Amino acid sequence: MPKTPRRSPRQPAAAATPELQLGHEVEWPTTPEAARLDRVPNPQRDTDYLARFTAPEFTSLCPVTGQPDFAHLVIDYAPGAWLLESKSLKLYLAAFRNHGAFHEDCTVAIGKRIAQEIKPKWLRIGGYWYPRGGIPIDVFWQTGRIPKGLWVPEQGVQPYRGRG
């Protein structure tokens, strides 16, 4: 992995905002704690809607064996005043690649950190983990009740079925 994420050639340097990581070369964070999550103002803050991030190739390390663990993460949230900036989310999630933690800890910690940073009206995270020791583990966490009238689609990740 390159030491710094590359900027898209279609994104002009003038579009960079000094306080955001977006539009700037930044170092890959080495730990989730060192990673910064950026937020931007929500121009539709008076409207209830759902935003979804999907990370189908999330990785972390088993805290006991050091072997890699793999998950498909789905993060749904109803924005309040802030939106989660996607480049910072990518960098934050990548910081787990060398982080040892159990599936439950990774999933819940990610949800709590995002909720703390952007203070959404509602957030849920589904961590669909591939089998470890022959047993898949799915982990779900949310901040509270779904706002009335908000359309929340299914996360669309099938349960692990092996070769069946």
From TrEMBL:
Subcellular location, record wording: Cytoplasm
UniProt entry keywords in alphabetical sequence: Cytoplasm, NADP, Oxidoreductase, Queuosine biosynthesis
Catalytic residues (positions) = 62, 69
Q: Where does substrate bind?
A: 84-86, 103-104
Q: Where is the region Disordered? A: 1-20
Q: Which Gene3D superfamilies match?
A: 3.30.1130.10
Pathway field of the UniProt record reads: tRNA modification; tRNA-queuosine biosynthesis
In its keyword annotation, does this UniProt entry include Oxidoreductase? Answer: yes
Q: What is its EC number?
A: 1.7.1.13
- Report the catalytic activity: 7-aminomethyl-7-carbaguanine + 2 NADP(+) = 7-cyano-7-carbaguanine + 2 NADPH + 3 H(+)
Q: GO terms for biological process?
A: tRNA queuosine(34) biosynthetic process
Superkingdom:
Bacteria
Task: Give this protein's Gene Ontology molecular function annotations.
Answer: preQ1 synthase activity
| Cellular component annotations (GO), alphabetically ordered | cytoplasm
Q: Which PANTHER family match?
A: NADPH-DEPENDENT 7-CYANO-7-DEAZAGUANINE REDUCTASE
User: Its function?
Assistant: Catalyzes the NADPH-dependent reduction of 7-cyano-7-deazaguanine (preQ0) to 7-aminomethyl-7-deazaguanine (preQ1).
Question: What family does this belong to?
Answer: Belongs to the GTP cyclohydrolase I family. QueF type 1 subfamily.
- Listed name of the protein: NADPH-dependent 7-cyano-7-deazaguanine reductase
Source organism per UniProt: Rhodopseudomonas faecalis
